[in-house]
Amino acid sequence: MLSVHQFPCLSDNYGYLLHNSVTGETAAIDTPDAKEYLKQAEAKGWTITHIWNTHWHPDHAGGNVEIIEATGARVLAPKEVEKLSPIDRVVAHGDIVNLGEHRADVIDVSGHTNGHVAFHVVEEGIAFVGDSVFALGCGRMFEGEPKQFWASLDRIRRLPTATTLYCAHEYTEANAKFAQHADPGNSALEAYIEEITAKRARGEWTVPTVLSRELATNPFLRADDPAIIAKWGGDAPHETFAALRAGKDNF
Ligand SMILES: [Zn+2]
């Protein structure tokens, strides 16, 4: 049995521990805050045995060294994480990583940074997507190109639609404001925003989200939708995506 323990850390990150109760192994998905990760693991009675990094940003891999020193955890990460910590195994698209008998597919979702991966635990129907896609949004394009980022988002779109997406930040309310501007008249989006607003008013998390819902509402996953193209232009989905991304950056 695998279980996911989610907790907020830093100002708006979510931390995740993925635990295999049969073997006792625990993977830290990213390491925004080493002390909080170690505290959360201890409270669960778990020891972090692995670190799976999605990308090299300090609020994703900055806690690696401290967790390695405390636990001896093995780091599986894209090679860019070398900037911040040693890596035991470099991972890239098409690789498989294991936590005991459970496996996750490594998917290239670069665009926010180069060397950004997602971990898709197929049998559980869950994916840890880092800063590639958020509820109603996507990551800023710091290092990648529109074509590359769109191809990454298209890989996410092709996962089973019931897949639970564990995003790395609680950005949903701000994303919702832009989504409403980007895709006015989308009734599924309006209903989703009502729920989000109510949840945040109660102090609840809006992450994880579910792919099927994002496919119907997230403008960045809908860059090939006629309504989005009509508003944002572009002769190809990656051009429409680029216009959306620039629109959000300046929103
Ligand atoms: Zn990032």
What does this structure look like?
This protein is α/β, with parallel strands linked by helices and 251 residues long. It has a single domain, classed as Metallo-beta-lactamase, Chain A. It is 35% helix and 24% strand. The strands form three sheets. It has a six-stranded mixed sheet with strand order 1-2-3-4-5-6, with helices on one face. The chain has a six-stranded mixed sheet with strand order 7-8-9-10-13-14. α1 crosses α3, α4 crosses α9 and α5 packs antiparallel against α6. The radius of gyration is 18 Å and the shape is globular. Bound molecules: zinc ion.
Write the layout of secondary structure elements.
Layout: E1 2-9, E2 13-20, E3 26-29, H1 34-44, E4 50-52, H2 58-61, H3 64-71, E5 74-77, E6 89-90, E7 96-99, E8 102-108, E9 117-121, E10 126-130, E11 133-134, E12 137-138, H4 146-157, E13 164-167, H5 172-182, H6 187-201, E14 209-210, H7 211-217, H8 226-232, H9 237-249
Parallel strand pairs: 3-4, 4-5, 5-6, 10-13
Antiparallel strand pairs: 1-2, 2-3, 7-8, 8-9, 9-10, 11-12, 13-14
The protein binds zinc ion.
Zinc ion binds at residues 55, 57, 60, 112, 131.
Distance between the termini: 43 Å
What is the number of beta strands?
A: 14
CATH top level assignment? Alpha Beta
C-alpha Rg (nearest Å): 18 Å
Mean pLDDT: 98
**Poorly predicted parts:** none
The major β-sheet equals: 6 strands, mixed
Summarize the model shown.
The protein has helices at residues 34-44, 58-61, 64-71, 146-157, 172-182, 187-201, 211-217, 226-232, 237-249; strands spanning 2-9, 13-20, 26-29, 50-52, 74-77, 89-90, 96-99, 102-108, 117-121, 126-130, 133-134, 137-138, 164-167, 209-210. It is of the alpha/beta class and 251 residues long.
